[in-house]
Specification:
340 residues; UDP-galactose 4-epimerase, domain 1; 11 helices
């Protein structure tokens, strides 16, 4: 199978490239050559910039399948999908953020998508979800009946540049009392980039042209069970101290970015993002490695990063702030005991 990946050197892309090469497929990369250009020196690379309309390197080329891990603006997706429409399949990596009602539990792949409130405004940071929804539509319009759309939630594992999951294995490895968010049973969802890549490849090998929610694990997972799995896998001496959503809000602790992976399940705006229905993907072959393996491998990846990078984590709660909050919780407990 001749595979073209648009991107391929960021976070998810390299995991897909390695899986496809290991399976014996011919892989070509198209990108700007600016992100991790040292990767895959043995593979053919086409240079261009879809953001600038520079697709000349793709003209006259034919591939069996196209994988788009770098599409954020519908015009860019439309241009590449139209140019490569001779392919038998176009796989677009979207996001669960594309849904209109992210506060709803149990979102299925046919749930309504977000509408762009300012059509023509391509500010990805501000309109990430609506733009992803439009990208999906652009791909399908260019290659009707030949498009696979995969909507992952939080993608985690080695290579993650966001630190949104990485915070937890790093914090647990320090040991001691660990501030944890909400209630232990609050649902969380994530997917190891390697498992997502394997499912993407499976969809291409089988010619599966459907829309999937790609979130894990296989069964419902509470934030407490997630963190306990990390404690067990890492073999660390750490205890969890849960702080209610109300306490965290009172002290302006941000879900997702400071208390990472977690959002309050009752949040009417985003509470459903830990409860998305991935039954379709699981029925069609999505599989998950043990969560402990993701904890161990993510910590190993982190420990290999340069010291300067590790000194500036991009998500999670600062150590001093965590200590302050734990002290407030201890004081609150002491007051409650005295009153009793």
């Amino acid at each position: 199978m001749r595979v073209l990946i648009l991107g391929g050197t960021g976070f998810l892309g390299p995991h897909f490239v390695r899986a496809a090469v290991a399976a014996g497929h011919e892989v070509t990369l198209f990108n700007r050559g600016k992100t991790n250009p040292h990767l895959f020196p043995e593979l053919p690379k086409l240079r261009g910039d879809r953001r600038e309309g520079d697709l000349a390197a793709l003209e006259g080329k034919h591939f069996d399948v196209v994988v788009d891990t770098s599409g954020y603006v519908p015009e860019h997706v439309s241009a590449t999908a139209s140019l490569l429409s001779s392919a038998r399949q176009y796989l677009f990596v979207s996001s669960v953020s594309a849904y209109a009602n992210q506060g709803q539990a149990g979102l299925t792949a046919d749930a309504p998508l977000a509408e762009h409130p300012e059509p023509g405004n391509d500010d990805v940071r501000q309109f990430y979800g609506p733009l992803k929804a439009l990208c999906e539509q652009a791909a399908e319009a260019a290659m009707p009946g030949k498009t696979t759309v995969i909507r992952p939630g939080l993608i985690v594992g080695p290579g993650d540049p966001t630190d949104r999951f990485t915070y937890w294995p790093v914090r647990l490895a320090r040991g001691g009392e660990v501030l944890a968010p909400g209630q232990p049973e609050d649902p969380v969802q994530l997917i190891d980039a390697r498992d997502l890549a394997a499912f993407m490849l499976l969809c291409l090998e089988r010619g599966q042209t459907r829309t999937y929610n790609a979130v894990g694990p296989a069964e419902r997972l509470g934030v407490g069970a997630m963190l306990e799995a990390g404690v067990a896998a890492l073999g660390v001496d750490a205890s969890l101290r849960f702080a209610s959503a109300e306490f965290l809000a009172e002290h302006e602790v941000q879900p997702w970015m400071e208390m990472t992976v977690w959002v309050p399940p009752s949040d009417p705006e985003v509470g459903g993002l830990g409860q998305v229905d991935a039954s379709g993907a699981k029925a069609d072959g999505l599989r998950f490695r043990p969560l402990g393996e993701t904890f161990v491998d993510t910590l190993a990846y982190w420990n290999e990063l340069p010291e300067a990078r590790r000194a500036e984590p991009r998500a999670g709660l600062a150590a001093a702030r965590e200590t302050e909050l734990l002290a407030l919780l201890a004081g609150k407990d002491a007051s409650a005991d005295a009153a009793a």
